[in-house]
C-alpha cells in the first residue's frame, strides 16, 4: 500500500528524530564509559565498583553492567574494578573514552543463594517500576498470569462475569485493555485475546514481572495509557535444567507443568516449557443452578532458543502454541444443545493460538554502548464461542517489526535510541448478524533520548510518529524524569499520550453473559488519552532493618473513549464515542518493612476516582472500588526452608450499573464492602518443595451474582455485574521439583 505524505507531515516526522538527537549535546562533559561483564558467559555484572586508582572517586555499574566516570576526577590513567566473588582488575584507560572489562570468578567461593529482603521498587529506573520476583511468584499458586499478582498491591485482578470465569487486570482504576502487556518487552496478548489472556501464560514460564505505572517507552508502541506489565520469561541459559510443578485444588482442578533446559553447544541454549490444566468437576456452592466456574482444558507449549556469539551477536527466538476449551452455564448444560423451549443456558469457547518472536542484537566491537537491534513477532489467534443463543467468533492475525539503533552523544551521559516499526493487524469478528472487520497497517518512526548526569538526575524524552492507514498521523510524545534528592529519596514525574483502537466486543464479553443487546450508536473512533503523574520513594532503615515508603498519584484524561454504556438501559449495552469528560484519578501509598529477620510486611492504601460521561451525565464507572486496603505478611526461615505468606485485602463499595425495573429511570445499586484472605505455607528440601494454601479463606461469596438465574433467557438475566468472589473458599496443594 502506498502512502502520500504532505510536506508538513514530513517535517513533523523528521523533527521527531532530530529533536532528541540534538538536545543537550553541546553540554556534554568528557567522561569514561564502560561495561563490566562475566568473563565466562559475558553476562553484565550489576553493582561492580569502578574507581580511579589513587582516589575515592568512583561509581558502580547499573542493571545493564554500565558505568560512567568523570575524566576530570582521574589522578592516574588507571581504574580499579572490583566485585565480590571476582578477581579485582586494574585497567589502563589512557587515550580511551570507552572500555569493556571482563572479570574472572575467583572460584574460591561456593555458590550462595541469597533469598533475603529484596527491593521490589527499583531505585534505578526512570519510570515508577515495581518488580514481582520469582520468589514472590512462589508465594501463591501462580498457575497462570492472573494469579501472579495476588501478593501485589499495584495491579488488581477481577472476575468479569459469574459464568465464563474470565479474568482481567486493572491498573490506575482502568481496565486491563489500557495496560500494555509485553513478554520480554515484545507486545503480546492484545486485541481479541483480551478476555482470557491472563490464562494464556503459565506462572511456571515466568522469571519475574515488571510493573510500570504511567507512560512507558515509545519503543514499545503507542497503545500504553495506564501503564505496562512486562513479563520476563525464563532464560534458557540461566534457568533450572529441570523444573516440575504439580498442583491440585478442592474444586478438582489440576495443573501439570514441566520445564526442561539444555546447553546444546557453547553458543546455543534452549528451553522447553509445557503446561496443562483441567477442570471437569461441576460445582454450584451458591445453589443458583449455575456452575460457579466454567469447566475447561488447556494445553500450552513454549519453546525458546538463545544464540550468543562473543560480545557482539545475541539472538533469541521462541514459539508458543496453545489450545483451550471451556464450558459453563447451568449445572446440567451439555455441549451443543439445540435451540428449543427447554434449552438450558450455557457458554462454550474454543481457542487456538500460535505465536512466535525473534530478538536479535549486534553490539559494535569496542563500543559496548552502541548496538543495533531487530525485533519481530507474529500471532494467529482464532476462537469460536457461544453465550446462550448468541454466537461470537473471531480471528486475529498480527505481525510486528521493529528496528532500533542505540548509541551515545559524546559519552554515556547522553544516550539515544532511534528506530522504525511496522504493525500489521487484521481483525474479523462476528456477533450474531453483526460483523466487524478491519485491517491496520501502521508504519512508524521513533526516537528516545536519555540524559543521565551519573549523580541524581535522569531524563527520558521520547516521541514517535505513526502513519495509520485508517486514522491518519498519530503523534505520541512521552517524558519520564527521575531525581534523587538523596540516594534514598527519589522523585519521579511522567507524562505522555496514548492511542489505541478498541475492540468493543472482545473487551466487553462479560456483557454477553446477559440478555443485553449490543447496540452500536455510531462509528467508533480510536481512543486517545493523556496521562500525568508522579511518585515519591523513600528507602530507610529502622532498628537495623530495611524498609521503603512509596506513594504515587496519576491522572488520566481521555480525549476520546469508546463508552460501553450499561447505565442508560437495563436491556442494552450501547457503544458510542465519548461526549463529555472521562478521567481516572489514582492514589496509592505503600509501606514495606522487614519487621524481624525473615519477616516482611507490605501494606498499601489505594484511592480511585474514575468517572465517565454516560448520555450527558458524569458518573462513577461501575465495579471499581474507591477505597482499597492491602496487607501482605511474609515469613521465611534461613535458606527458605520454611515459608509462610498471608495476604488480606479490603474492597470498598462499588457502583453497579443496571436498572432494577423498566420504569425508564436508572436505579443504580452499590456492592457490599468485603475482605478476602489468601495464605500459603511451603516446606523446601534439597530439590523438592511442598506447598499448601488457600484462597478466599474467609469464604466470602457475592450474593445473587446472577440476576434472573431462574429464567436465563428472560429479559432480566444478567451475570455481568460481578464485584466479588464467586467460588468461595478454595484449598490447594502442590509440589515443585528442581534440578539446577
Please give a structural write-up.
Helix content is about 5%, strand content about 55%. The protein is an all-beta fold and about 750 residues long. It has three domains: about 10-105, Sandwich (Immunoglobulin-like); about 130-230, Ferric Hydroxamate Uptake Protein, Chain A, domain 1 (Beta Complex), CATH 2.170.130.10; about 230-740, TonB-dependent receptor, beta-barrel domain (Maltoporin, Chain A), CATH 2.40.170. The strands form seven sheets. It has a 22-stranded antiparallel barrel. A five-stranded mixed sheet has the order 8-14-15-12-13. Strands 3-2-5-6 form a four-stranded antiparallel sheet, with no helix packed on it. It is globular. This is Outer membrane cobalamin receptor. One of its GO terms (molecular function) is siderophore uptake transmembrane transporter activity. Belongs to the TonB-dependent receptor family. It is found in: Cell outer membrane.
Amino acid at each position: 500500500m502506498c502512502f502520500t505524505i504532505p510536506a508538513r507531515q514530513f517535517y513533523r516526522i523528521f523533527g521527531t528524530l532530530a529533536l532528541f538527537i540534538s538536545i543537550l549535546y553541546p553540554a556534554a562533559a568528557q567522561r569514561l564509559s564502560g561495561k563490566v561483564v562475566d568473563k565466562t558467559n559475558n553476562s553484565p555484572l550489576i553493582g561492580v565498583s569502578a574507581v580511579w586508582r589513587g582516589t575515592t572517586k568512583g561509581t558502580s555499574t547499573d542493571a545493564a553492567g554500565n558505568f560512567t566516570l568523570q575524566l576530570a576526577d582521574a589522578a592516574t590513567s588507571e581504574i580499579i574494578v572490583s566485585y565480590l566473588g571476582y578477581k579485582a582488575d586494574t585497567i589502563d584507560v589512557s587515550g580511551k573514552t570507552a572500555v569493556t572489562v571482563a572479570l574472572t570468578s575467583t572460584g574460591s567461593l561456593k555458590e550462595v543463594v541469597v533469598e533475603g529482603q529484596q527491593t521490589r521498587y527499583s531505585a534505578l529506573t526512570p519510570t515508577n517500576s515495581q518488580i514481582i520476583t520469582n520468589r514472590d511468584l512462589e508465594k501463591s499458586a501462580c498457575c497462570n498470569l492472573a494469579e501472579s499478582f495476588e501478593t501485589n498491591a499495584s495491579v488488581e485482578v477481577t472476575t468479569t462475569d459469574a459464568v465464563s470465569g474470565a479474568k482481567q487486570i486493572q491498573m490506575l482504576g482502568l481496565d486491563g485493555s489500557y495496560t500494555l502487556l509485553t513478554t520480554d518487552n515484545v507486545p503480546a496478548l492484545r486485541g481479541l485475546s483480551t478476555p482470557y489472556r491472563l490464562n494464556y501464560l503459565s506462572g511456571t514460564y515466568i522469571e519475574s514481572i515488571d510493573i510500570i505505572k504511567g507512560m512507558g517507552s515509545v519503543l514499545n508502541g503507542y497503545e500504553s495509557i495506564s501503564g505496562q506489565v512486562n513479563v520476563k520469561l525464563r532464560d534458557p541459559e540461566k534457568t533450572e535444567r529441570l523444573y516440575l510443578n504439580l498442583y491440585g485444588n478442592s474444586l478438582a482442578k489440576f495443573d501439570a507443568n514441566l520445564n526442561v533446559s539444555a546447553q546444546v553447544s557453547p553458543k546455543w541454549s534452549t528451553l522447553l516449557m509445557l503446561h496443562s490444566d483441567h477442570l471437569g468437576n461441576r460445582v454450584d456452592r451458591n445453589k443458583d443452578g449455575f456452575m460457579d466456574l466454567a469447566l475447561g482444558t488447556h494445553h500450552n507449549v513454549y519453546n525458546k532458543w538463545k544464540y550468543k556469539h562473543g560480545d557482539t551477536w545475541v539472538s533469541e527466538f521462541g514459539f508458543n502454541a496453545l489450545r483451550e476449551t471451556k464450558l459453563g452455564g447451568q449445572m446440567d448444560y451439555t455441549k451443543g444443545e439445540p435451540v428449543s423451549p427447554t434449552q438450558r443456558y450455557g457458554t462454550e469457547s474454543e481457542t487456538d493460538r500460535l505465536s512466535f518472536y525473534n530478538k536479535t542484537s549486534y553490539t559494535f566491537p569496542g563500543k559496548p554502548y552502541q548496538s543495533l537491534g531487530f525485533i519481530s513477532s507474529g500471532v494467529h489467534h482464532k476462537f469460536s464461542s457461544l453465550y446462550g443463543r448468541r454466537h461470537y467468533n473471531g480471528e486475529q492475525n498480527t505481525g510486528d517489526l521493529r528496528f532500533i539503533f542505540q548509541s551515545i552523544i559524546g559519552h554515556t551521559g547522553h544516550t539515544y535510541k532511534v528506530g522504525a516499526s511496522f504493525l500489521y493487524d487484521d481483525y474479523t469478528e462476528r456477533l450474531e448478524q453483526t460483523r466487524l472487520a478491519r485491517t491496520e497497517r501502521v508504519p512508524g518512526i521513533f526516537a528516545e533520548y536519555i540524559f543521565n548526569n551519573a549523580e541524581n538526575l535522569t531524563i527520558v524524552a521520547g516521541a514517535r510518529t505513526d502513519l495509520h492507514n485508517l486514522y491518519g498521523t498519530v503523534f505520541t510524545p512521552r517524558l519520564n524524569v527521575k531525581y534523587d534528592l538523596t540516594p534514598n529519596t527519589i522523585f519521579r514525574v511522567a507524562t505522555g499520550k496514548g492511542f489505541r483502537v478498541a475492540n468493543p466486543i472482545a473487551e466487553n464479553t462479560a456483557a454477553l453473559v446477559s440478555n443485553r443487546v449490543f447496540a452500536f450508536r455510531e462509528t467508533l473512533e480510536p481512543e486517545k488519552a493523556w496521562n500525568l503523574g508522579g511518585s515519591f520513594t523513600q528507602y530507610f532503615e529502622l532498628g537495623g532493618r530495611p524498609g521503603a515508603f512509596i506513594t504515587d498519584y496519576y491522572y488520566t484524561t481521555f480525549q476520546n473513549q469508546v463508552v460501553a454504556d450499561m447505565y442508560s438501559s437495563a436491556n442494552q449495552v450501547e457503544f458510542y464515542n465519548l461526549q463529555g469528560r472521562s478521567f481516572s484519578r489514582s492514589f496509592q501509598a505503600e509501606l514495606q518493612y522487614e519487621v524481624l529477620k525473615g519477616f516482611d510486611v507490605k501494606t498499601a492504601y489505594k484511592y480511585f476516582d474514575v468517572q465517565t460521561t454516560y448520555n450527558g451525565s458524569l458518573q462513577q464507572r461501575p465495579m471499581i472500588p474507591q477505597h482499597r486496603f492491602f496487607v501482605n505478611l511474609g515469613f521465611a526461615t534461613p535458606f527458605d526452608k520454611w515459608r509462610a505468606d498471608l495476604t488480606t485485602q479490603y474492597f470498598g463499595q462499588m457502583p453497579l450499573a443496571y436498572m432494577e425495573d423498566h420504569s425508564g429511570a436508572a436505579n443504580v445499586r452499590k456492592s457490599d464492602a468485603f475482605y478476602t484472605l489468601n495464605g500459603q505455607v511451603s516446606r523446601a528440601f534439597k530439590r523438592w518443595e511442598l506447598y499448601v494454601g488457600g484462597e478466599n479463606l474467609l469464604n466470602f461469596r457475592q450474593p445473587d451474582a446472577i440476576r434472573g438465574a431462574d429464567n436465563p433467557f428472560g429479559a432480566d438475566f444478567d451475570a455481568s455485574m460481578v464485584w466479588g468472589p464467586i467460588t468461595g473458599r478454595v484449598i490447594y496443594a502442590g509440589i515443585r521439583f528442581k534440578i539446577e
